[in-house]
């Protein structure tokens, strides 16, 4: 099995350019036998690895991404431009390019986090049942692509939409970990921040909900184990929706936060 760290690896080409080979393991078939479209969090992780490699700092503490085109399996390139180098933080612009077309454009801020730092203040972790009390999603079928690589255990309270029983609120919650055994790190957090079924599903808007822009912050380095991913939204209007995500690690630490703007169906079910 190819690990997540291996399939998101980049190699330097010089002058801020990095080669990547996008695999199909973290993708979804658009239809049976159809082309595979890659998960946006997976693409972010590839881009972030190149940005950090080009920086003097170790961690991507803030990443703001515009999603321009779907990513497909195959060769790609990340082009990184240094915008500011600082003692505690640096800013870089990075583009993930495939076939001469940009897929993602991002502004990445890097820093070096202290793994032993303790927060002066942090709010309470939202409640969710333990992983063993949360079932995997979907009905029995052969797993491949993203569902085969990412173990997701959804809170039963938000999964009634499978039978048309929507909660009426934009919300989704799940425990997440990689099947390959890789411990969570900033790049796994990038995958997890975009792993949930869209929160608008529970507001009665199921189906494809493509991300337009996503900004996320690395708040602490995660402990090994499950990640608790909590997603909510504030408004669905005129075919647009927002999604806010928090990730808490197995030690109860808030490790990532995000907000994204996405498209949504105009008609509620």
From TrEMBL:
Residue ranges of domain Acyl-CoA thioesterase-like C-terminal in the record: 131-262
Disordered: annotated span: 119-142
PANTHER family the record matches: CHROMOSOME 23, WHOLE GENOME SHOTGUN SEQUENCE, THIOESTERASE DOMAIN-CONTAINING PROTEIN
Biased composition (Pro residues): 126-139
Name of the molecule in the record: Thioesterase family protein
Domain Acyl-CoA thioesterase-like N-terminal HotDog positions: 37-110
Source organism of the structure: Actinocorallia libanotica
């Amino acid at each position: 099995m190819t690990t997540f760290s291996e399939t998101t690896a980049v190699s330097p080409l010089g002058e801020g350019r990095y080669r990547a080979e996008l695999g199909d393991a973290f993708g979804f078939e658009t239809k049976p036998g159809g082309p595979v479209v890659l998960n946006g969090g997976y693409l972010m992780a590839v881009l972030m690895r190149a940005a950090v490699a080009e920086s003097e700092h170790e961690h991507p503490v803030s990443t703001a991404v515009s999603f321009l085109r779907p990513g497909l399996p195959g060769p790609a390139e990340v082009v990184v431009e240094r915008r500011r180098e600082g003692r505690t933080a640096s800013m870089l612009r990075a583009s993930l390019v495939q076939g001469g077309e940009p897929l993602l454009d991002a502004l990445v801020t890097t820093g070096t986090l202290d793994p032993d730092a303790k927060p002066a203040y942090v709010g309470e972790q939202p409640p969710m049942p333990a992983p063993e009390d949360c079932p995997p999603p979907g009905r029995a079928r052969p797993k491949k692509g993203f569902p085969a690589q990412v173990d997701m255990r959804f809170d039963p309270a938000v999964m009634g939409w499978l039978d048309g029983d929507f909660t009426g609120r934009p919300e989704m919650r799940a425990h997440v970990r990689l099947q390959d055994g890789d411990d969570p790190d900033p790049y796994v957090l990038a995958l997890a921040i975009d792993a949930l079924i869209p929160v608008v599903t529970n507001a009665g808007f199921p189906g494809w909900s493509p991300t337009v822009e996503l900004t996320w912050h690395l708040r602490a380095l995660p402990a090994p184990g499950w990640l608790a991913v909590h997603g909510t939204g504030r408004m669905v209007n005129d075919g647009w929706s927002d999604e806010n995500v928090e990730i808490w690690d197995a030690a109860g630490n808030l490790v990532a936060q995000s907000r994204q703007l996405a498209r949504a169906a105009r008609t509620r079910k």
